[in-house]
Amino acid sequence: MKVLGIVIAISFLGIINIFGQHPLTRNNVFFEAGGAAFFYSINYERLLLKKADHNLGVRVGFSYLNLFDDRGRQFTGLPVGISYLKKLKNKFLETGLSFSGLIDQYDIPRADNVNSRAIKDLVLIPSFRLGIRKQPIKPGLFWNALLQYSLVAVDDYKTYKWDDAERNSIPFLSLGLGYAFQ
Predict the structure, then answer these.
(1) Distance from the Cα of residue 5 to its chain's centroid
(2) Measured over all CA atoms, what is the biggest interatomic distance in the chain, rounded to whole angstroms?
(3) Per the domain annotation, does 9 fall within a domain?
């Protein structure tokens, strides 16, 4: 079974290389405000096809936010996603799906003000994304602006159940800025 998977992967990569022309820069490192991790994230994305008119990208990122408040609230997140790019004149239409898991940690003070109770929630955020992107052919500035529709589901980290989670649907804007390279 492993051998079959390796053969399929090598064949797929070979087909991609045969049909590629005028490739785009294939790697992006970028800062995203809003977006998959809700607050912000630092991301790496790899375009999988060597095509100048359409492409498929996969990304992974990291996010950390310390609110420095009296409850010691901290958010740590890991966004992942997949995007499809279609050329429109000198920009790209970008559609994609992303998924982010955030850990929300904070303390709730008790009435005696001596001991507090540590809370650790898991926040899962599946999202649909649609917008425009500047993806250069040569190394240089990368940017995107996306409308994102997300479902935010929050429940206790240790006993997380999607069906029991508090859920809210949230539309918002995502802006990314970074560097594209080969």
Answers:
(1) 26
(2) 70
(3) no
The tokens describing 99, both together, are 């998924």
How many Cβ atoms from other residues are within 10 Å of residue 98's Cβ? 25
Q: Residue 138 sits in a domain of what CATH number?
A: 2.40.160
The pTM for the full model equals: 0.81
Pairing of strands 40-47, 27-33: antiparallel
Encode pLDDT of 82-124 as tens digits.
999 999 988 999 999 999 999 999 888 776 666 677 889 999 9
Residue type for position 37:
A
Which residue shows structure tokens 């992974």?
60
Q: For residue 77, give the nearest of 107, 32, 29 by alpha carbon.
A: 32
How many Cα atoms occupy the beta-carbon half-sphere of 17 within 13 Å? 6
